[in-house]
Amino acid sequence: MHADQRYIKGLVNNDSEVIREIYRKYYGRIQQLVTSNSGNVEDARDVFQEVLVVLFHKGHEGFTLTCPFSYFLYIACRSRWINELKKRGRRRVTITDIDGLNNDSLLTSEWRQLYKQEKQKQLFHREFRKLGPSCQELLGLSWTENPDTSKYNSLYEVAQITGRTYGYVRRKIAECRNRLMQLVQESCDFNDL
Predict the structure, then answer these.
(1) Residue 2, class by beta-carbon neighbours within 10 Å (0-12 exposed, 13-18 middle, 19+ buried)?
(2) Partners of 146 in the beta sheet?
(3) What residue segments make up the domains of the chain, in order of their start?
């Protein structure tokens, strides 16, 4: 764990002092990166905030920083901006880096994986909200950890909680899962992941 893990902890804990420090110390570099590479101040702000949100979520999942925060943040924002430029239809993307920071392919790969996982999670939750209330309830219960056993609720437990038969719950959950997967796969964002 790197000493800069305190920034991840600060994001997770919504520590306003740490968040202000992150903006004060690092936003200018990201703004310079984006505005020097076909973007504007608003694009820089969006990229910076998107990366911080991903780090916030990953911090809640136990993400451990193994390099300086400034370097990781820069690579993450750089990768995010490259992806945005590609989406905008730039066939060839050339990024002019700020002096003193070199591209580390391992770190870039790590960031891309984190970013992809976050985008998958967002897609999944967005499509989940399109399901009917019954499907949301049953799937939600089946994905909820039982505090007594520290395991996810079984179909039998879901049937007991909802007052429905085991056969109904089993069939309905299978239908709901299939419908959710269909919604996810039909989403225009699915192929981008």
Answers:
(1) middle
(2) 151
(3) 5-118, 129-192
> Taking the model in full, what pTM does it have?
0.54
With beta carbons less than 8 A apart as the criterion, state whether 115 and 80 touch: yes
* Higher per-residue confidence, 36 vs 163: 163
Structure confidence by residue, pLDDT tens digits, 53-98: 999 988 888 888 877 888 888 888 988 888 888 887 755 555 555 4
Average pLDDT, the chain: 83
Measuring CA to CA, how many Å separate 136 from each of 41, 77, 91, 170, 173? 39, 34, 41, 14, 10
Distance CA 74, CA 29 (A): 8
Element (H, E) at 145: strand 145-146
Concatenating the DSSP letter of every residue in 19-60 gives: HHHHHHHHHHHHHHHHHTTT--HHHHHHHHHHHHHHHHHHHH
3-state secondary structure of 147: coil
